[in-house]
Design goal:
Blueprint (H helix, E strand, L loop, with lengths): L3 E4 L2 E4 L5 E5 L8 H14 L3 E6 L2 H4 L22 H8 L6 H10 L3 E6 L2 H9 L5 E3 L7 H8 L5 E4 L5 H13 L5 E6 L14 H9 L2 E6 L5 H8 L4 E5 L17 H18 L19 E4 L14 E4 L10 H4 L25
Parallel strand pairs: 3-4, 3-10, 4-5, 6-7, 7-8, 8-9, 9-10
Antiparallel strand pairs: 1-2, 11-12
């Protein structure tokens, strides 16, 4: 497995901070000015990248008035919506892409997209995108994966709903046309998803089973699941973004607002840094704190030859004398030298002391 891959000069993988993607999806509400405000806010929140979705309603489904093309699940955010109408509302116009990508780059962001058909890949190639992301619903679209992978650019594959066999098939297809830089995203393809059906322990299994870098495409509300994923080794976090949930947007219900995205970035960085290495005995930063452990002190004046007792000694802070583990031995001994109240008791103060 490659421990590091690179997208537009941003290294991703082992030893790197998590790569945070703000998914604009259709929350721009077909308003280019709003889309640019979202990108600006995402930049200020500290994300690494913004991502679009590149499709048209006609490339996604058929414009036929039939229940076959209607969302019938009553628990769906989009219950009753005709697929063509929903995709028409949510799509990002092709003629916006250049302006959006250029603006994102001006702000120092990486900008790329999820193509939903082979023609979308051709279009995105004219814009020289640095990577491609295949959405979870398209993971079984092998021709699309081969098309995107054949560009030689890093490929991010979302695994929601996919069986082990389907993931293996997608990887084989990508590698079969020369793809080398591949990231799998653990994903639960419900909108919103719940923590209970996210199953983050799959992240480590994906890493071991398929020998690739692994991240999370998170459709839950809030940031807790994403931060937990970072602690479990996720090197990429993708979340949907919205300026104001109350103002609406096709994905607003499970999207993060700017302040939340900023909190996600900060918490993900902290979680990543906190993983560190296997360390015992304290870090260098803790050395000074060791002074405030406990040791054995005289609490009263003790004459030479006098027995040490609980009445004239005590285990207190700081740790400049004998450690507390020696207290029982000290209590069975006599003072070799006179001591004043407040003196730390050292080995040469104790008759017969053996370390």
């Amino acid at each position: 497995m490659k421990n590091i891959i690179e997208i537009a000069q941003r290294k991703i993988g082992e030893g790197q901070l998590p790569f945070i993607i703000a998914e604009l999806s259709g929350n721009h509400n077909q308003d280019l000015a709003l889309a640019k405000k979202m990108i600006k806010a995402a930049s200020e929140a500290g994300v690494d990248a913004i991502k679009l979705q590149t499709y048209t309603a006609d490339s996604m489904t058929l414009n036929i008035d039939s229940d076959n093309f209607r969302i019938m699940e009553k628990d769906s955010l989009w219950y009753g919506r005709h697929l063509h109408d929903l995709y028409q509302q949510a799509c990002t116009p092709y003629d916006w892409h250049q302006a959006i990508f250029d603006y994102a780059k001006e702000l120092g962001l990486i900008a790329f997209s999820s193509p939903f058909d082979e023609q979308a890949v051709d279009f995105l190639e004219t814009l020289d995108v640095p990577a491609y992301k295949i959405a979870s619903f398209e993971l079984t679209d092998i021709p699309l994966i081969e098309k995107a992978a054949s560009t030689g650019k890093p490929l991010i594959l979302s695994t929601g709903m996919a069986s082990k066999a389907e993931i293996e098939q997608a990887l084989m297809a990508a590698k079969g046309v020369g793809a080398e830089d591949i990231i799998l995203l653990k994903c639960t393809s419900t909108y919103p998803a719940t923590p209970e059906n996210t199953n983050l322990n799959t992240i480590s299994d994906l890493t071991k089973r398929f020998d690739v870098l692994v991240g999370l495409s998170d459709h839950t509300r809030g940031i807790g699941v994403s931060v937990a994923a970072v602690a479990l080794g996720a090197c990429v976090i993708e979340k949907h973004f919205v300026l104001d949930r109350n103002a609406g947007g096709v994905d607003a219900a499970f999207s993060l607002e700017p302040a939340e995205f900023k909190a996600l970035v900060e918490a993900s960085v902290a979680a990543s840094q906190a993983m560190g290495a296997v360390v015992y005995g304290g870090t260098a930063a803790e050395e000074k704190s060791k002074y405030y452990r406990r040791s054995i002190f005289a609490t009263k004046a003790i004459a030479k030859g006098e027995a040490f007792t609980r009445d004239n000694t005590q285990v207190v802070r700081p740790a400049i004398g004998l450690a507390p583990k020696h207290y029982k031995s000290v209590l069975q001994a006599h003072a070799k030298h006179a001591l004043n109240a407040g003196d730390a008791i050292y080995p040469d103060h104790v008759s017969g002391f053996l370390d």
